Amino acid sequence: MLQNINLPLIQDADLKGKTVLVRVDHNVVKSGVIHDPYRIDATIGTLYHINARGGKMILMTHVGRPRNKKTGELTLSEKTSVQPIVDYLQQKLHIKLKVPEFLRDEKKGYTGIETSINHLIRELREDKIDGIYLPNTRWFYGEEAKDENRERFANQLAGLADIFVNDAFGSWQAHASTVDVSRYLPSYAGFLLQKEIENLDRIYNPQAPFLAVVAGAKFDTKIEPLYALIQKADYLVLGGVIYNAYLCAKYNIRIKGIEDDDMEHAKKFVEFAAGYPGKIIELPYITESDVPDARQEGKYRKVDIRTLKPGTSLNYIYDVASDSFAVEEVIETFSKAKTIFVNAVMGYTPHFNEGTIALDQLIDENDSAVKLYGGGDTMQELKRLLPGLYIAAIDSPDYYIFTGGGAVLKAIEQGTVTGLAPVKALIERK
Q1: Which among 82, 125, 315, 382 counts the fewest CB atoms within 10 Å?
Q2: Which of 425, 389, 352 is nearest to 181 (CA)?
């Protein structure tokens, strides 16, 4: 697939003596703590390669969402700092990294990269340090700006290095550090980005039967990928709020908490799905709760959707009951699949986990399928709920866990990996 899209590869770059600016997706810090280093570990092959070929690394990533959406103001705090990532890499790789400091604007964050970084670049070139890790890219005003500040920031980034390497599959948004910088430097795809694209091909060209499992807290965030998947997949299983809204739209029932915009999306999707009969495998048992945001004994129960009549009103539906995955039709669908794509947490976590556990266990029972897990919450919940399976999956040739669930869905929606702006930018630069 890589050859077909003419992607420039890091293994073809002359790195000796070159300063290499590397965009990674190390967005694994929450409230100042690393909860899962998987995304960091996934990039280590690229970092080793740069070092072995004589390159000098300058790393950058975004962390969290430090920008207030309403005011546009940036908050720079330890909660969204790269320092925990730096500490982890230094310990794991036995290297020395330094993070530069810049003047802060109380509302705009860092307005740009200042000349104060030059002394660190000298240390890097003189082998006094092994690398530089720039502050959170989202701390810089220009990273997501819509004006000349974005171009200015991209130029400043390019001025730090001789070569740009993108190894941040999960960072698919078109920002200064993912797209714009590639216009000014010879640019290449890192090993992780290559690996992610190769595994995307297993979704674009799946071995049939192809089963897709998708869940989410909002219908609108996954509606376009759902339209694409119901056309491509042999079977589609839904969960979460997406499934709740689907049930409301199809069976004319009401579920507490389902918003009007979710219903509108669901109605359109149900109409569209009618053109693909038999593809949606409905999970018959759901878990109803009388209380929001909690799990209280005696306050929740299993409901069979097949017994519901039009006009029925239900309280909060917080999970797909585990019994759904013991139904003969469901077991048969999962057992005969040859490709399974999962971007799904079935229940309202952390209180309702049974549906997700039963789903992942049923998938694992299929020894002949390729199992492709979309990152993010899907990966985190697999690790939390079934740590043994998670560890086995990482090393298993039957599994692949993407580092970015949103990026996978975007690629599915686009129908081609070249629809992702950072990938397109690399190809055009070549």
Answers
A1: 125
A2: 425
